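Board notes (copied after class):
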Amino acid sequence: MTDMILIEKIRELLVNRKPEIIDNSESRYVHSSVLIPLFRKDGQYNVVFTKRTSRVEHHKGQISFPGGAVDREDGSLEETAYREAYEEIGLLKKDVEMLGRIDDELAVVSSFIIHPFVGIVPWPYDFKISAQEVESLIFIPLYVFMDKTAGYKKDFVVADGFPYHGTNYHYDGHIIWGATARIMENFISIIEEKIMLA
């Protein structure tokens, strides 16, 4: 399967399914958007994650996607994802090939509804990280999330000093857990049955 066919299949899947929306009619939660940036390197797809600094307000030191709260000036949830990706990792909107949106996820501790978007980005890329928000970038092969024998664990883990029961992924000394892990698990569940990675 060529890269173009694979990407078009993912785009078709996301465009033709309605994402599950979390009700916020009582305004209990803050809306936020994240970008799941994918890139192809050495014959395989990878995901860009950020390791957050200890200076951010929420989820200090955790591994996450570029993203954040919706601003009044943002024209849409998708625009929030673009803006945050630019502010945090220097990713320009024109360099993102947006494939679509997946289901909302709830970050209970911080009271965020997260709206995840999936996009393809060029590689190599001159990322420029925000020293205030991002300690480093982490690149993880997509197969780690698709192969249950690779990094997937659905059990108890102590991550960043917190005990956590639920899906978590381990790769090269990093632990992806919480809402970020649940978002990746959901994304994989959407695409893995119909798509084999090229």
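Comment from the instructor: The chain has a mean pLDDT of 89. The longest helix spans residues 178-191.
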